[in-house]
Amino acid sequence: MADTDHLEKLMQGLDPGFRAIVLHSADAIVVVDRAGTVRFANPAAEALFGRPAESLVERPFGYPVLAGETSEIDIPRPRRDTAIAEIRVVEVPWRGEQAWLATLRDVTPRRRLESQLRRARAGLEREVQARTAELRRTVDELRSANAELERYVRLSAAGTRYSGRVALDEVVAAACRALDTDLNVSGMAVTYSGLPTVLGDARQLQQLFEILIGAAVQRCRTGPDPEVVVRSGAMTDCWCVTVQDNGAEVEPRFQEGVFAGRGGDGASAGLTVCGRIVAGHGGTIWLESTPGEGAAVHFTLPAAG
Fold first, then answer.
1. CB-based contact 86:102 (threshold 8 Å)
2. Residue 287 in contact with residue 275, Cβ under 8 Å?
């Protein structure tokens, strides 16, 4: 881009050493007079500003020149992205007058890299916060599971039988209210209606549905239009209830014994509680999962008659 003849005219009479420095400097060098007019621009300045020297010289510099200070300026460039330059200014004699010599270093790649690093760091911090929140929920679930297991053991030891009439529509609605935040964040739709009335403990059955629907939310995290459908079917002396989701498949090796405590994470502990609750109501619980069709948890509860 450099116009050699134009530069030669600008540099006539200058010290040869100075000429060599400014011509071969990787940094842009601009001389600005007291009136703020550019008197000289070297080839690196042409590259930085994206314009030939003749379109820079004898025109206003347009940026503050403060001797002894270092600052950064944004340089709009024709048909190119805006450049970010670090500018240092010193006072120098020029053609018998005092002027400012501004050295500009292109720091655009560095600033872009720093911006990318800041975004990456912010993303990592958000991920850490999300993981931390998830771990806290897991800890809370484990504590709740332990408390429920202790309660179940006490009731079982006392030979307790549940005889209360529990409307499952109301229980599922309460479970959804308790999971309101998770359901809203995930966009999960929970569909249910016409569920039966069974014999049991309303609080335990609500916890049963909370754990099963919460597990469905986790399986459906990466899929579109997540949905859970709760339905029921009558059997001889009990009801079979199904909680069906459209999330990820549960591998066969994880299906058997999933409600019997064969796992060490928070989700397994929660499903163990589900097994205990259903067993305490005299029922059975099992899981089926087919690729592309999500997972279905089936369990039986005694009919209210």
1. no
2. no
Question: CATH says 4-106 is which class?
Answer: alpha beta
Higher-confidence residue of 140 and 86: namely 86
Instruction: Assign 172 to helix, strand or coil.
Output: helix
Q: CB under 8 Å to 220, separation ≥6 — which residues?
A: 186, 188, 226, 227, 228, 245, 246, 247, 248, 294
What proportion of the chain, given as a percentage, has pLDDT over 70? 82
Give the model's pLDDT for residue 161. 56
Mean pLDDT of 83-87: 91
**Dist. CA 208–CA 173, nearest whole Å:** 13
The C-alpha angle 40, 46, 52, rounded to 5 degrees, equals 85
Res 57 pLDDT > 50 = yes
Q: Which residues in 11-119 belong to E strands, given as ranges?
A: 28-33, 38-41, 70-77, 80-94, 97-106
Q: What is the largest CA-CA distance in the chain?
A: 111
Task: Give the model's pLDDT for residue 166.
Answer: 94
**How confident is the model at residue 196, as a pLDDT?**
94
Alpha-carbon torsion, ordered 148, 154, 160, 164, to 10 deg: -30
Q: What is the residue extent of each domain of the chain?
A: 4-106, 114-302
pLDDT digits (tens, 9 = 90+) for 90-139: 888 888 889 989 999 999 888 889 888 999 998 888 888 888 888 888 78
Choose the CATH number for 114-302 among 3.90.1150.30, 3.30.565.10, 3.30.40.10, 3.40.50.1970.
Answer: 3.30.565.10
Q: Is the per-residue pLDDT at 10 higher than 60?
A: no
Calpha distance 300→296 (Å, rounded): 13
Backbone angles phi, psi at 286, to 5 degrees: -150, 165
Only one residue has tokens 């408390």, namely 147
Characterize 209-244 residue by residue with b for buried, 16 or more Cβ atoms within 10 angstroms of its Cβ, and e for exposed: bbbbbbbbbebbeeeeebbbbbebeeeeebbbbebb
